[in-house]
């Protein structure tokens, strides 16, 4: 039986959550504070570039070339990675990826897993799957760990606990572990560090994502600030990487462009604290590292998006989160309102395609002011506000708008095609149409503007 939550259409849930969050003053204050800190850091991070636009254009071209020959680059990556004893598993969808990971865990008698921050594991619902199969899965990124303790979902691509204030976090640790209710961030971090160290040493497997996959060397590139990713790789005997097929870059030299772009646009740093290249399991003579290493290459709708022109450009995304931080809609309604793993402008573009449910999630492409700020800040030059328009056009081509909406647009088109048809209807009729047909969409907190006279009449009177 379908639950009440899933029975509600996605666009209805989106409107309800948006209404709730947009007028939640506490939520708005928390987000405004955290966004202000990001914007300050971002402004400093960009100063390392003398020609930032040139760097963005170079990154856009490199990602475009890789996507044009994606199959070849993926094959090269597999060949290079397997040469050093690693294993590559190709997963067509989330279910196939989960089954593959469960088989690996069963093969190596894994009962405890430590997992670093990864949006793609959220995409396939991996943590819940492991828990249901009797495998403890512990998030080791501080933000993800906080979200896991609170039973919540990540709020942001880069900063999963952005919606929580310091007092909120202290309250969670007071409830779960008995820490003082006024614990400082430093005290909480020290507590988490000690607790996670024990887990790193006991876990039989570590699971990470991949910021980039380097084709020519068969390397997995990880970027982080806390060191939990390195601990998840080096301590457990088994390392499982879950990565989307679009994460490929062609050669090692490309990282000198992409790593700083990701850092400056994601967190405002010149370079993140830990940048690691992993070429496979531990080799003879090496001191540490996993005995077994697997890379699960996930499609899960990416081939579908690759075939969509021009929306395929969105596959160049490096998950920095800059477009979320710039978007006025996201700043008001937050990440959870979108109802998808990937929120904000990039989520609105890719989610309908990745999910294969264009009708279900096409409304996200209308959740935008089309101000273009997302395009302006994108480090890899994705024209996000244009991609949203392309999605809207696709919705119309597929016949998703209701009959009433299509009829209304037809009337509007006819009415606006001739000047006399605009001016002729009396003011009272215009106000009635605006109030009756657009009053609900205008919102309960705003009054529908009243027409006093046509613009032409007001303009003429103003000249006199």
Strand order, sheet with most strands = 1-10-7-4-2-3
Share of β-strand residues? 5-15%
Distance between the termini: 69 Å
Shape: globular
CATH class of the largest domain: Alpha Beta
Gyration radius, to the nearest Å? 25 Å
**Main β-sheet: number of strands, strand sense, barrel status?**
6 strands, parallel
What is the number of strand segments? 10
The overall pLDDT average reads 93
- Name of the CATH homologous superfamily of the largest domain: NagB/RpiA/CoA transferase-like
What is the third-level CATH name, the topology of the largest domain? Rossmann fold
Which architecture name of the largest domain does CATH use? 3-Layer(aba) Sandwich
The poorly predicted ranges are none
Number of helices: 24
Coarse structural class: alpha/beta
Instruction: Give the tally of structural domains.
Output: 3
Helix content: 40-55%
In short:
The protein is 53% helix and 10% strand.
Describe this structure in words.
The protein is an alpha/beta fold. It has 3 domains: 1-48 and 320-401, no CATH class; 53-300, 3-Layer(aba) Sandwich (Rossmann fold), CATH 3.40.50.10420; 417-463, no CATH class. The chain is built from 24 helices and 10 strands. Strands 1-10-7-4-2-3 form a 6-stranded parallel beta sheet, with helices on both faces. Strands 8-5-6-9 form a 4-stranded mixed beta sheet. The protein is globular and about 90 Å long.
List the main descriptive attributes of the protein structure presented here.
Rossmann fold; 464 residues; alpha/beta; 53% helix; 10 strands; six-stranded parallel beta sheet
């Amino acid at each position: 039986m379908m639950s009440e939550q899933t029975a509600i259409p996605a666009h209805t849930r989106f409107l309800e959550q948006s209404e709730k969050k947009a007028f939640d003053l506490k939520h708005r204050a928390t987000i405004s504070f955290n966004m202000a800190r990001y914007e300050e850091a971002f402004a400093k991070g960009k100063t390392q570039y003398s020609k930032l636009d040139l760097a963005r254009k170079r990154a856009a071209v490199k990602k475009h070339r890789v996507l044009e020959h994606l199959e070849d680059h993926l094959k090269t990556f597999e060949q290079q990675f397997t040469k050093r004893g690693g294993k590559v598993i190709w997963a067509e969808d989330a279910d196939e990826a989960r089954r593959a990971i469960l088989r690996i865990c069963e093969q190596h008698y894994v009962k405890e897993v430590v997992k670093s921050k990864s949006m793609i594991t959220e995409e396939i619902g991996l943590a819940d799957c492991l828990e249901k199969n009797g495998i403890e899965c512990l998030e080791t990124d501080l933000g993800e760990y906080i979200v896991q303790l609170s039973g919540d979902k990540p709020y942001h691509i880069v900063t999963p606990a952005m919606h929580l204030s310091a007092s909120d976090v202290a309250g969670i640790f007071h409830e779960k572990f008995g820490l003082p209710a006024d614990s400082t961030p430093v005290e909480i971090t020290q507590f988490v560090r000690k607790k996670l160290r024990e887990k790193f040493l006991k876990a039989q497997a570590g699971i990470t994502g991949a910021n980039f996959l380097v084709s020519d060397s068969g390397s997995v590139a990880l970027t982080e600030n806390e060191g939990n990713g390195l601990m998840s790789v080096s301590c457990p005997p088994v390392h499982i990487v879950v990565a989307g097929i679009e994460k490929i870059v062609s050669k090692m030299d490309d990282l000198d462009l992409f790593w700083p772009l990701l850092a400056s646009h994601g967190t405002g740093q010149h370079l993140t604290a830990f940048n690691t290249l992993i070429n496979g399991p531990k080799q003879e003579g090496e001191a540490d590292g996993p005995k077994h290493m697997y890379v699960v290459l996930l499609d899960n709708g990416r081939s579908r998006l690759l075939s969509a022109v021009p929306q395929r450009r969105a596959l160049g995304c490096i998950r920095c989160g800059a477009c979320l931080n710039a978007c006025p809609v996201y700043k008001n309604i937050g990440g959870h309102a979108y109802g998808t793993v990937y929120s904000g402008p990039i989520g609105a573009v890719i989610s309908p395609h990745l999910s294969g449910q264009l009708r279900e999630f096409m409304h996200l492409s209308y959740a935008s002011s089309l101000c273009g700020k997302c395009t302006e800040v994108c480090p890899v030059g994705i024209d996000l506000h244009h991609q949203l328009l392309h999605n809207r056009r696709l919705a119309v081509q597929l016949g998703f708008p209701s009959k009433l909406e299509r009829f209304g647009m037809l009337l509007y088109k006819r009415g606006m095609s001739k000047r006399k048809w605009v001016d002729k209807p009396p003011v009272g009729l215009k106000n009635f149409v605006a109030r009756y047909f657009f009053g609900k969409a205008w919102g309960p907190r705003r009054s529908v503007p009243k027409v006093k006279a046509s613009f032409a009449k007001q303009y003429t009177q103003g000249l006199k």
